[in-house]
Amino acid sequence: MPFLFERLQGCRDHCIVRTVLMRESEINELIQQMRIPFDDIEWGITTTPGMNTITFVAKGGCSFSREAVISEARRIFSTRMLMPESENLEMEVLHLLSENGVTIATAESCTGGLIAKRLTDIPGSSNAFLGSVVAYSNNAKIDLLGVPAEIIQQHGAVSEEVAREMAYGAKEKFYAHIGISTTGIAGPEGGTEEKPVGTVCFGMATEGEVQTFTERIAMDREGVRFYASQYLLNRVRIHLLSIRKN
After folding, report:
1. pTM
2. Alpha-carbon torsion angle 89, 145, 191, 227, nearest 10
3. Distance (Å, whole) CA 91 – CA 20
4. How far apart are CA 10 and CA 2, in angstroms?
5. Omega of the bond prior to 123 within 30 degrees of 0, cis?
6. Does residue 156 share a domain with residue 57?
7. Residue 84: strand, helix, or coil
């Protein structure tokens, strides 16, 4: 981008802000609340699945403080905004893991190893990422992660109770600081009235507690799997930010 600005328009002040799991309309409304010199700045949003990139560019002949715009964006978007140096969510998660000296392991069912793939796409991920178990069948959940069979029988494989045990199992099996898990119905078949296609249950085991939550992702199979990975990585990121502040 700096090369293109210099070649095509001359060197103009600019900065980039990335947000996760936000609607473009919501971003538009929040940008209007930023205390920045809009007479001197133009901006636009580029949307990709689970993330938006906002580019602020000085209008011709104008300039602005990049630090001031970043600071205002942080005030407005809070934890939904990535750090300026992070190009994507997985990069930020790994940065925060390394910064805090924390390791992570994953137990994946419906995401089929996608979270592990995204993390290991980043060079140096071995400093924090220890490994993954893709426990697709019930037997794999029981034998590899130690999920009690009676919990699966009582609550079903797609449940927060099973996600809790999977996350704890990953943490214990890999001796990690954090264990995370996904179990869900990616579709296009397999849904019920109680648990429709797109239902995904998540677990995150940390020192002393296991958090669980459920999302309904109304997308096709690929979309369910990707957004499931995005929701869970973002939950890990927010947890790591809370550690960082403390």
Report:
1. 0.93
2. 0
3. 13
4. 9
5. no
6. no
7. coil
